[in-house]
Amino acid sequence: MNNKLKRDFYQREDVLQISKDLLGKYLVTNFEGQLTAGMIVETEAYRAPDDKASHAYLNRFTDRTKVMFEAGGVAYIYLCYGIHHMFNVVTAQEGIAHAILIRAMEPVDNIELMQQRRQFDRLKPQLTAGPGVMSKALGILTQYTGTSLVAPDSPIWIEDRDHIIPPEAIVASPRVGVDYAEECASWPWRFRVKNSKWTSKAK
DNA sequence: CACGGGATCGTCT
DNA sequence: GACGATCCCGTGT
């Protein structure tokens, strides 16, 4: 229980494997003493330099994307459509811009606060189904981009609570919202827990 | 349930 | 100046 994932977990080469391994893990935030958490049920892999859907395609290095080149175990958070704070896990060794978008989780700890942040008066699957709304429920903002997920004092981390997702319970499909990425758009790099009602809608 | 559009702003051209 | 790794609400069936 309460076993925080360490650098070794994040710094492996195979971003697809890590994306699957993250299913069933617990994403936790603790801002100003307010802890909230949920079990990850949906992820998407982005693998520069060859992936046209990645912000770091062809190793494009800008103020925004530079954090993706750091060693695995930090957060890459960016603003989408001026509204949504998208939370990604940076993986692999320094210099390799692999990242995993966390798309949905099953709410677990302090559901009341997550509902408050979303202005929900009762629990519905939409509370944390989708990358933008999941971040809102957890209180994650773009200003936390670059935050370590492994440092002892980090406000964001991922835990193993011994919840096993067997391989046959993982469904792979194309990623969402990446039609512009040509041949990469069809790559089955979106991973979901089969039969979970907490995942975002199928396309 | 399918669809169409508006919100809203940092980032890159 | 255009647009996006989204979401929600309105309309119509």
How would you summarize this macromolecular structure in one to three sentences?
The protein is built from 4 helices and 9 strands, in the order βααβββββααβββ. It has about 200 residues and is α+β, with helices and mostly antiparallel strands. The protein has a single domain, classed as 3-methyladenine DNA Glycosylase, Chain A (Roll), CATH 3.10.300.10.
Describe what you observe in this structure.
The protein has 203 residues and is α+β, with helices and mostly antiparallel strands. The chain has one domain (3-193): Methylpurine-DNA glycosylase (MPG) (3-methyladenine DNA Glycosylase, Chain A, Roll). The chain contains 4 helices and 9 strands. It has helices spanning 7-10, 15-21, 111-118, 131-138, and strands spanning 3-4, 26-31, 34-47, 75-80, 84-91, 98-109, 156-160, 170-173, 190-193. Strands 1, 2, 3, 4, 5, 6, 7, 8 and 9 form a 9-stranded antiparallel β-sheet that branches. Helix 3 (111-118) crosses helix 4. It is globular. The protein starts with a strand and ends in a 10-residue tail after the last strand. The mean pLDDT is 96. The protein binds a DNA duplex (13 and 13 nucleotides) through strand 4, strand 5 and helix 4.
